[in-house]
């Protein structure tokens, strides 16, 4: 069975979260001006359901996003976009 294509925005978000470590959803949206709020939200939702990202609600901050090291399709050989 063929593996589903990974949306480019997913790879961009994983690279961004990995480079900054942790950020709020609003910070992530502002760091990715090429993508709409809806594209970022959809990707973060998809990646959190896959277990690649972890999302936590923090009082006064909003939602904090963390890349879960060692998880997700982005760490398999040949799938990461540079």
In a nutshell, what does this entry contain?
With 82 residues, this protein is an alpha+beta fold. The protein has one domain: Arc Repressor Mutant, subunit A (Orthogonal Bundle), CATH 1.10.10.10.
Protein model, in words:
The protein is α+β, with helices and mostly antiparallel strands. It has a single domain (8-69), classed as Arc Repressor Mutant, subunit A. It has three helices and three strands. It has helices at 8-20, 25-31, 37-50; strands at residues 22-24, 53-58, 62-67. Strands 1-3-2 form a three-stranded antiparallel beta sheet. Strand 2 (53-58) and strand 3 (62-67) form a beta hairpin. Residues 71-82 have low confidence and may be disordered.
